[in-house]
Amino acid sequence: MEKDEFLNRLVTDLNYTASVAEMLIARPKALREVLRDERIKKKILEDPVFFAVLMCNDKWLVSAPDHQKLLKDMHPRQVAVCGRGWGKSLVFSRKNLWLIYTKPKIESLIISSTQRQSMIMFDYCYFTIQSNPLMRDMIKRPGTTRTTIRLKTSLGGRLVALPCSPNKLRGFHPDWVFCDEASIIPSDMITSEIMPMLTKPNSHFVMSGTPKSFDHILRRAFLELKRYSIHHYPSYNSPLVSKEQLSEWQQDMTKEEWTREVEAKWIEIANVFFPIDLIITSLDPELGDPDSPNRYIPDLEGIQPKQLTGAFYAGLDMGKQIDHSVLAVIQKTDNKRRLVYKNQFPLGTPYPSVIAHVTKANQTFQFTKLCIDKTGVGDAITDEIKQIGIENTEGIFLTDRWKEEIFTYLKLLMEQKRLSILPDDTQLITQINEQRYEYLKPKTAQERIHLKFTHPPKRHDDQLFALALACYASKEEEPKTTLKKAY
C-alpha cells in the first residue's frame, strides 16, 4: 500500500486505525513519521476518539458509540452516571491523555474521595503512557511522580491525582477537574472546595459516579439539563461488561442493588434503618488522605505514634463458617468517632487466631473498652479474652432489643455528624444501607413498640455489627441521678 493511501485510510477508517495501532506503537519511528503528516496531526488534535484508538490501542472503542460520545463531549459542565464496570474512568483517562498531549500547558485534576480511588483513573493514564514509547518519551523527569504526570516543556501539561482533602486541593488553578465517584464525595466538599477552583476562563468540570444519595450535588446536577451535559448509561450497554458478568451480578445482587449499581438509577429502599443520604454524611475524605494523621489504618504494623491520640474503642462480631468474624476499632477525639481500623477475618479462621489478633490490636491501641457479640460462640470468646487480661471487655447477647439499642446509638452518631468512615469502604457502606427493620407485635396496646432487624438473603452484616459494637463501647455512661430529700 502506498504511503499516501495508508495515511488517508488511517484518517478516514477507524476500524483500519484500530487494526494497525498496535504495530505502530511498537515501532516508534514509524509512528513518529505518521504523526508528522498534516492530516493525521489535524485529526488527532480534533478527535479524542482517533487519539485513543491510535495512541492508546483502544480497539474496543470502535464499536462503543456511547463511550465515543462521552469522550468527545467538550461541554464545560458534564455529568456521567454509569453502571458498574461501564468504563467511565477508562474513558475519562483517555480524555485526560488527549488533553495533556494535544493542548499546551493544560492542568487537569482527578479528584476522588480518597487517594486510592483517584489513582484508578490516574493509573489508566500512567500505564498507557508506559506502553507507548513516544508518549513515554514526552514525560518530564524529574517532575513526574506516582501521583503526577508532567510533560516536557514543548507541551508543559500536568495531570494530578488527589484526594478531596482541603489541604491537598489548595494552590491549584486547573483547566479541567474530573470528580471520579462523585457520589461518595461530600456535597459540600464539591460545592465549597472543588468548584471554586475553576477560576480560569473556559475551565471544565466533570462529575461521574453511580447513583447513591438523593440529596447530593451529583443528582441535582443530573437533573439540570440546561446547565449540564448529561450522560446516563447502564452496565449492560457497555462492550466492557460481559454477559457472564451480568449474569453473575444478577444472581448475587439484591433487586435494589441491581437497580442502583447496574441500571444506574436512584432508588429509595423501603424500611432501611440507615438511609443512604444519612450514611453519605458520615463519609470523611480525611481518612483516605495518606498524609493525614487521622488517616485510616489498613495494617497494624504500619501505625505511626502520631496516629495514637485520643481513646480507642473496639467491637468484635464473631462468625466462622457462614459469617465472617470482624474487628472494628474507632478513635474518639473531641466527641467525634472515626473508624480507623477494621479487619474482616477469612471464613473459617480459627478462634485462637481471632483472639491473637484482638490481643495484638489491644497492645497497639490500648482499648478503653471492647464490646463483643456474646451470641453463640461469642460467650466463650469473651471469657477467654477477659482471662488474657484485656480489661474492660463487655459481652452483649444481641437480642432484638440489644440490636435496637446499638443501632439506634449508631444512627444517633450519624445524625449528629459525630461518626466518620472511609468513603470508599463499599462493603461496609452496603452492609449499613441494607439493614432492614420491621415492627415487633406488642403484647398490649400500651407497650413500647420494638424493632426487628434483618439483612437480605445471602448478604452479610458482620462489619456493621462490629462498627455498632465499637461505637456502643464508646457511649458515655448516663449520669446517675439521686432524689434529694424534700426536708
Structure write-up:
The chain is α/β, with parallel strands linked by helices and 487 residues long. The chain folds into two domains: 211 residues, P-loop containing nucleotide triphosphate hydrolases (Rossmann fold, 3-Layer(aba) Sandwich); 198 residues, 2-Layer Sandwich (Nucleotidyltransferase, domain 5). 40% of the residues lie in helices and 16% in strands. The protein is built from 20 helices and 15 strands. The strands form three sheets. Strands 3-4-2-5-6-1-7 form a seven-stranded mixed β-sheet. A six-stranded mixed β-sheet has the order 12-11-8-9-10-13, with helices on both faces. Strand 9 and strand 10 form a beta hairpin. The radius of gyration is 27 Å and the shape is elongated. The termini are far apart.
